[in-house]
Q: What sequence folds into this?
């Protein structure tokens, strides 16, 4: 497991939804984020609250790492 996976596991979050959440939060509101990620607004609210619980360093690391990975995936397509 990677550090990203360790942090997500500590907060009971999945990598796939975390990637969608991080990608969408900079562009959309919670309703639009839920629709884009294919999950409920309650799931997005859970992720928002869990990200708030994280230490600032964990949150910054996850956002940076997940955004970098997402952009690399899109570049390869």
A:
């Amino acid at each position: 497991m990677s550090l990203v996976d360790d942090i997500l596991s500590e907060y009971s979050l999945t990598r796939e939804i975390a990637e969608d959440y991080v990608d969408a939060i900079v562009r959309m509101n919670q309703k639009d984020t839920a629709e884009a990620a294919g999950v409920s607004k309650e799931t997005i609210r859970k992720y928002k609250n869990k990200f708030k619980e994280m230490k600032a360093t964990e949150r910054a690391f996850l956002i940076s790492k997940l955004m970098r990975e997402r952009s690399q995936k899109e570049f390869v397509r």
